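During the first year of the project, the team set up a workflow for recording each protein of interest as an amino acid sequence followed immediately by a discrete structure-token representation. This format lets reviewers and collaborators read both layers of information side by side without switching files. As required by the reporting guidelines, we include two representative entries from the current panel. The first entry is reproduced here exactly as it appears in our internal archive.
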Amino acid sequence: MANRQNAATAEHAPDHAQLAERFRPVFQRIAEGALERERGRKLPFEPIEWLRQAGFGALRVPLADGGSGASLPQLFRLLIELSAADSNLTQALRAHFGFVEDRLVSTGDEQRQRWLKRFVDGELVGGAWTETGNVGLGQVITQVSPRADGSWRLNGRKFYSTGSIYADWLDIYAQRSDTGEDVIAVTRARQPGIQHSDDWDGFGQRTTGSGTSVFEDAEVEAGNVIPFGTRFKYQTAFYQVLLLSILAGIGRAAANDAARLVRERTRVFSHGNAPRVADDVQVQQVVGQLGAQAYAAEAIVLRAAEALQAAYDSHFLGDAEAEHQANIDAELESAQAQLVVSELVLRASSDLFNALGASAAREALQLDRHWRNARTISSHNPLIYKARIVGDWLINGNEPPYVWQIGNGTRG
């Protein structure tokens, strides 16, 4: 039934103009408070609530199930717009959209429908996968243990718990204590056994709700321990393209800010090219270049989103070979996109200062946030390894890794 349902609803998805018209007033409201939140490191609980009430978290849920029925390219176009308003919010919702995607392709109609209804009702999911400290490569310390009544208890500590502070549920990478199997434990975020801390101290993406989550006998309901091996196969590519949509949004915001400030600027240099900055051909060139960089970043992200859509569609075709190839394509496209989009946006977020004077460095403008945020996002998955993976495919035909881990290596 799930296969037929997906095939039936895909034909009736709204066009992008309809979706954008619905959410743009919310994006505008979010943008209006972005500088204040950045200056004061104010967590965006209210903006998250606006998105929740607007049904943003149910974008990918089929129309027949009460959602918007958005395709993946439509989703990422909207995420680029949200990121231009405030890139922190998109990252705060990254785990949510990943879990939605996983539930869309999951087996078991009853459980699938239960989760889709929760998304339509506005419930959001945060993530807690990474462990820091004395953790070996591939080691999972967080444990989930079975109870006699069918429920589970979760114990452990995670960092980079992006979006968890705002969430109703948590998607947690853990290990079964009885079998040693790697699993996803999905638990209610608000319960006595869970403590969230906003202790992310990075110089960028300061209000994403990332930080430490501690689990002490937290309850996991029966049926909410999911074997990791059943996760949607294009998950790594999906999470990467979502980060790239954030970068593309940052690029758009940097270009827009530069154009606006040039338009408003009255002070000129004696050795400039015009009595009005907006008419200075060299300044126009800088802003034009920023616009082109933002355009290219968006175009690349949307190309990668099409590869993700193909991977999603292939899941329902019953052709294992075609699905495998679609997943290879999605991973390679996301890797190549990362290499180029990261460089485009990092350059744009620095070059925007060439169009302005020293006053652009003032704290009140927070123009440095574009570079800080872009640099933070670009550091998630090392560019050098992505370049090697693409090169290995092109030269030797070796498939990219679909899941990777981080931890302490051996000492030389």
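The second entry, processed by the same pipeline in the following quarter, appears below.
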Amino acid sequence: MNSVRQVPDAVPVLIAGGGPVGLATAVELAHHGVRCLVVEPRETVSWLRPRAKTTSARSMELLRRWGLAETLRSRAPLAVSWSDEAVFVTGLLGREITRIGGCFGLDLVGSDLAAEPGQQVPQPLVEEVLREAVGDALLTGWQVAGLQEDADGVTVRITSGDEEREVRAQYVVGCDGPRSVTRAAIGAKYEGRQDARPNFNVVFRAPGLAERMPHGPAVHYWVLNPAQPGMLGRLDLKDTWWCIAQGVRAEDADPVQLVRNLAGADIDVEILATDPWTARMLLADRYATDRVFLAGDAAHQNPPYGGHGFNTGIGDAVNIGWKLAAVLHGWAPASLLATYESERRPVAADTIEEAARNMATLAPELADPALMGDDAEFEKVRPAVAEAVLRTKDSEFHSLDLVLGYTYAGSSIVSSGAGERLPHRWLAPGESLYDRLGPAFSLVGDQRSPGAAVVVAEAAELGVPLRVVDLPGEPLALVRPDQHVAWRGGDPSGAVRMALGHPR
């Protein structure tokens, strides 16, 4: 991986943290032709703690927008066609209780609902693909140690071992995680709570386990054994697996025995990594100053159930990225940047609450001792447990209303009745409506409509890049760089000015 060896003295945007959200912010800025510097302490990406494993359909649409969706899919160990099911069992080698299909938008291949289905892929691979896209804007082996904002910019102190440098930036985006230096520097604080229950992750190798397993492909296997409840899944189609044991403290954990308990047999296990954690429902009380912005885990944390974690941060990255580019290129006023917090913080709040609801019923709550009895006992209790699974877990695996349906309705830069993601459809085999959109603003619809010329003229007057997408017979819609609708129908006068935060 190429890294910046000479630390620049100044840069338009400095990004603190090179995890998936920081890298996505850099890719978004590059998409608009804005230089940046990503400061990241890790020289390489570790595969030992894969963390997130679900890249949502919405994140995949944004990766498509950057030209990276197919790259990620081609390198993902599990093809999207491999499975879209979650299977609930007494043990990995035990009896099946029920299953849920169409999980995480993995079944959206070819659907008009989305330009891309979701993708099961370990977070380290997402980071590697984004690192390659960012290229020499990534500075590894350094970390942000402090910053000082003034009226004209931000002075950022970065360190590497005993070496210390200062970099001047016009803007800073803090993607530096739960212990964010950036968040502390702007005086923001987390608000929220932490779950009382401990969790213990294990990444392990188990040769031959897949061949013995009777339940077929699945993205999740939920083990409803009261003696050892938890979840497992495959990291690849070889021998590497992950598991989460719920209610297990690190000091009490025997990783090999834990895996064997979840499997329900004395299997051969090689432990590759362990990771104790507790779920947090946290939201920063503020996201920004005039020149410093928080994104990803620096701004919000939620439980992993539902697969929303870093995907919410990718939405942050695109929102702040296009707005910074618009301001830096001079076709939007600085006041546009104030809409980042007002648009993204409510989305994070909704995501935290949905993930917390998903966490309210986990494997320990669904487990029933009778499931572990003889066949007669199992069959007697299985229908009631299956009903409880389907009733309590359906929303966790089917959350497209949040993933694809969040809106910026009520934002000061969208008109009444707008704010949602532009409804998707296929125009031809393999050609998405989204593929026709420009990197900046797009005017979509019948260009013979009287309002079309008004919008085009206003964009030209303001110097706003605008791509025209002619769809004869369709109503007009002004679409933002993030594919959300800024204006549709009604009086087009001032629509572009409104969408960029100019005074009305």
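For the second entry, the following points were noted during internal review. The chain is about 30% helix and 25% strand. The first helix runs from residue 20 to 31. Both points are flagged for discussion at the upcoming steering committee meeting.
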